[in-house]
Amino acid sequence: MPFRDYFAVFTNRRIAAAMFIGFASGLPLALTGSTLQAVLSDAGLDVKTIGWFTLVGQPYTWKFLWSPLLDRFPIPPGRRRGWMMLMQLLLAAVIATMGGLNPAEHLMTYAVLALLVAFFSATQDIAIDAYRTELVHHEERGAAAAVGVFGYRMAMLTSGAGALILADTVFNWQQTYWLMAAIVALLAVFTFFSPEPQTDARPPKSLQEAVVEPWKEFFSRRGAWLLLALVIAYKLSDAFAGSLSTKFLLDMGYSKAIIGEANKVFGLIATIVGGFLGAAWMVRLGLYRSLLVFGVLQALTNAGHWFIAQAGAPDHTLLFAAIAFENLAGGMGTTAAVALLMSLCNPRFTATQYALLSALAAFGRVYVGPAAGYLVAQLGWADFFVFSVAAGVPGVLLVWAMRARIRELDVN
Known about the structure:
α2 crosses α9, α7 (81-99) packs antiparallel against α8 and α12 (224-233) runs antiparallel to α21 (393-401). The chain has helices at 3-6, 13-31, 34-42, 47-53, 58-62, 67-72, 81-99, 107-135, 141-169, 173-193, 207-219, 224-233, 236-243, 245-251, 256-300, 303-311, 316-343, 350-361, 363-379, 381-390, 393-401, 403-409. 47% of the residues are buried. By secondary structure, the protein is mainly alpha-helical. Residues 14-407 form the Major facilitator superfamily (MFS) profile domain. This is MFS transporter. The chain crosses the membrane at residues 50-70, 82-101, 107-131, 143-165, 177-195, 224-245, 265-283, 290-308, 320-342, 354-375, 381-402. It comes from Jeongeupia naejangsanensis.
């Protein structure tokens, strides 16, 4: 097969929709994170107050609690698109309102509005994940994952670095937030014209069914517990390697500027390229072989940090090579991992099952930090990164052990 044919999977309306909803998902995030902190700082608020504002992101962690509502109650013009449009219109209104307020004068109101942005954004994410899963064909899952990540990253740049630059050069914060609100409103228009998934699955008949049946159905499947273990373990190697990466590079003598350039710019590009390459190769390899090959690669490429630890002095060529290979393989692994989550969802309960599965998939990224600190203290940096490579072994072994089951998922 000519290599260009691998990329033909990207050339349809469903994949275009997956990219734009990825952008819609990522845009509000910085407005409750780094950009919000800049707004509060410019308003003269002290660091303790700004620290409390970091808690407004909690809805992203707990969104699975209300995900059954989205499975149970469809909203026109489509079961998922209706929820997406509603959240986007609410987000546009709240973001525009934030732009018209001075947080120093309306602190509590501003905090409530920021919390609402996170809540509406998290709810939008539930609908988006379900929509993408139901929209694409099984052979398009890798491509949908790749373009979704690309759209998400571009949106974070827009509302993160882009908003900071605009507020510092062209606009003030009020105008910048109004621009972000206008972009979200335009995304609602795009959502209205997006294709409706072709599925015969009926919504749950009651809220009780929407809460109980997703897990009753999932655990009735053969190998359900091993599949959950795979979801948790697959990205564990990356979670360990990335948990203290900035601290590691500072200890190795690299400057903050070089670390930022390597991780935030070069690493981002490598991750995006890896996502697209991974999606293209998934057309040929299928889900099982992609999970196996990309799982091995994302574990082995963490050894680049071991080489940095052994170098003894800053080596910029070595740093950029290590970051390139690690993020390239990590992007491939992320594409395969998202495709796995999509394949595990029953169309009747996509919102609930995907929300909880994605929370499990994020387990390592959220919780390995404390363990990583103790391991570094006991082992030293070099041996810690050997451990991070070894942490990828359980995930790869689970892929191999579940190969027959994963191949079944790939044809449904």
